[in-house]
Amino acid sequence: MFDAESFVSQKIDELRSQIDGKAIIACSGGVDSTVATAMVSRAIGDRLLTVYVNNGFMRKGETEAVSDILAKLGVNYRVIDASDEFFDAMKGVIEPERKRKIIGEQFIRVFERVARDYGARYLVQGTIAPDWIESGDGVRDTIKSHHNVGGLPEDMDLKLVEPLRDLYKDEVRQVARCLKIEVAERQPFPGPALAVRIIGEVNRSSVAIVREACAIVEEELEKAAAAGKMELPWQYFAVLLPCQSVGVHGDVRAYGRTIAVRAVESVDGMTAAYSRIPHEVLERISVRITNTMKKDVNRVVYDITNKPPGTIEWE
């Protein structure tokens, strides 16, 4: 049985011997990277600089929320707005694997600049087992390249440190609880962020649509769970589809985009079952999305696919 307290103690000792200079850590504010941040900070103290990169694809209020989390952790941190360069890199890109690899490389280029300025030789990431398992290798097929694995450029000039590499999500949550980190129960959020919740080209317009839709899905499901109408899913979000369909607003023809709502139950992210959301909750989500974004969206569907055969995220 996994012993979180023993893992933390052993890993902090290991990190102290492994990192003999300054390091930076990529922290998105999610469970994995925040746990890694807390552990490495305990190991090497102020030789660690935590870096949060706003790539322009973040959820509503995400940057402010992560800044608050890092401030409460008491770590040295820096917020970098690199949205312009990420949007430029995404122009014309549609294929999911290309998206993930381009985003992974863009992150590394930002981290390399920060590391040079800070004098760091090490890059710490919150990589966990499903990341490298799904990214594939010479033995395993690639399901999807996680940006922090398959997106790493070969010419990266930083030494990589991945203290959570052999853990699964449920074990990382146990470590977070052991460390008393407030994000222990936070739902997973993909490293490429909303870019992989847009099927098709990523641009400022498509990000704005899916960002608002995701916010509505999160608000309505959390409100329903708080009211005792349902259990809060393990992960829940919206996806913007590339197709348009005919609809009607009042007496006027509407030709708009489609939003897919996704909510799943899981333990470690390796398998998942779709959540049985009450119809009244789904209806509220649909009405809010189509009313809020009636110029852009006129149809909302619910994804009832398990993993396998689907994955949790659509890309």
Which SSEs are present, and which pair or pack?
Blueprint: H1 4-18, E1 23-26, H2 31-44, E2 48-54, H3 62-73, E3 77-81, H4 83-89, H5 96-118, E4 122-124, H6 129-135, E5 159-161, H7 169-179, H8 204-226, E6 235-249, E7 252-265, E8 273-274, H9 279-292, E9 297-302
Parallel strand pairs: 1-2, 1-4, 2-3, 4-5, 7-9
Antiparallel strand pairs: 6-7, 7-8
Give structural notes.
The mean pLDDT is 92. It is globular, with a radius of gyration of 20 Å. The chain is built from 9 helices and 9 strands. With 315 residues, the chain is of the alpha/beta class. It folds into 2 domains: 4-179, 3-Layer(aba) Sandwich (Rossmann fold), CATH 3.40.50.620; 198-302, GMP Synthetase, Chain A, domain 3 (2-Layer Sandwich), CATH 3.30.300.10. Strand 6 and strand 7 (252-265) form a beta hairpin. The strands form 2 sheets. A 5-stranded parallel beta sheet has the order 3-2-1-4-5, with helices on both faces. Strands 6, 7, 8 and 9 form a 4-stranded mixed beta sheet that branches.
